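Recall that a protein's primary structure is simply its ordered list of amino acids. Everything else, from secondary elements to tertiary packing, is in principle encoded there. The following example makes that idea concrete.
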Amino acid sequence: GRTDELANLQFIFRFQDDLISFNDNGYLETCINNIYPSEMTVNKTNISVRKSNFLDMTISIFQGKFYFKLYDKRIDYNFDVISFPFLNGNIPKGQSYGFS
C-alpha cells in the first residue's frame, strides 16, 4: 500500500521554494495538494517530460542518462534585467559592468 506511494516520492529534491521530482510516475502531481496548503501556488514549469530547468541548470534525460547544462532564468523574462554590481570589492569596475 503506502510503501509503493512513498517509493514514488523518494527522488524529490527541494531548495528553498524550488522543488524537482525524478521518476515519480506522475505521483507528486496527484498528491501535491495534500503536501502544500491551498494558499500556496505551485507551478509546473518543466519544459517536457524529459527536460526541466531547476535552479541554474537545464536537466535533460536522453536514453536513460541525465545531462546538465547551465541555465540563466533572466533570459526567460520579457524585459531587460539590470544588475547593480557591488563596487566596493576588489574587482575592476569595468568587469563589474560587463566590459573591460
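The beta strands are 12-15, 18-21, 51-54, 57-62, 65-70. The first helix runs from residue 2 to 8.
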